[in-house]
Amino acid sequence: MLKSGFGTLSKVYSLDVGLKRGFVTSAATENRSSIFDELSVGLLRASKSPAPSRTICAEIRFLEQADYARPLRRSLARSEVRQIVAEARSSVWPHLNDESVRLVSPREFTRRWAKQGVQFQLAKLKGAEGLALFGFYIRKLGDSRLPLICVNTAHHPAAIGAAFTHEMGHHLTGRLFDSRKEHAQFLADTAYADHLDDPEELAADILVSIGVFPGPIARKILMTPEKAKASQSAVDGLPDSVSAAVLKYMNGHYGLSFSEPSSLKLQYLAALIHFAKLRRALLAEYDI
């Protein structure tokens, strides 16, 4: 089903002459953006069913109990992780793992990365189906045969930044490991458990984890057993997921607060658990 959706998307974009030599950005016409938004949701439907809150809660509980050390070692060796970080530093984030990745506007993301040989599309997808999707990456699209990164700008800026980083991670790691995947690779709200068994997804997630929690910050706020009772107020009835220091950091640095529960905050909480636990595993297993 995914390949069928991918074929439809390719057909639509191959009609656009601008794709042959340029980049698709948020400056695209409203008509084309509307078509793209519809196709984006169609691709999401083809890949998975929209996730109700109870599914996200199950994802959160699974992620809390998951052992991240084993899948990390199974998927990527220490040398490969170092190679991923080195490639990212040389290509996109020169200060990766030294300081936190900074949030900028979606258009600024695309402007900064315009030399990376990637097409960009910004889609504001709302509603249950749209918000289940953060973004996706397609390795070759249209007559240009260039990769495409699509990011859903209906989300909180922190989630948008994570999506940009994750999808650019696919572009960088795909070049490193000579990926042959041609279908769309999604970042969706209940995908994190599956990422633990997928080296390519885990590699992209590593860049998000290190970008959000660079070494000095990660050692300070992640390598502690203390949990925040306040985190229970984020999602009533769920066990503590992250420390008070992490919650404070996310609010202060990225403007993401979990003080008011909502279905969207559940999505973000699942993401935070995943990226924080992955970052702890990188420190504990590889001292990275």
Detailed description of the structure:
The chain is an alpha+beta fold and 288 residues long. It has one domain. The protein has 13 helices and four strands. It has helices spanning 2-14, 30-47, 53-65, 69-75, 78-91, 106-112, 127-131, 157-177, 192-195, 199-212, 215-221, 244-254, 263-286; strands spanning 119-123, 133-141, 146-152, 185-188. The chain has a four-stranded mixed β-sheet, sandwiched between helices. A hairpin with a 4-residue loop joins strand 2 (133-141) and strand 3. Helix 1 (2-14) packs antiparallel against helix 2, helix 3 (53-65) packs parallel to helix 13 and helix 10 crosses helix 13. The longest helix has 24 residues, at 263-286. 43% of the residues are buried. Mean pLDDT is 78; it is low at 1-32, 47-52 and 227-239.
Strand order of the largest sheet: 1-3-2-4
**Rg calc:** 18 Å
Q: Averaged pLDDT, please?
A: 78
Order of helices and strands: HHHHHHEHEEHEHHHHH
Give the biggest sheet: 4 strands, mixed
Task: Describe the structure in brief.
With 288 residues, the chain is α+β, with helices and mostly antiparallel strands. The chain has one domain.
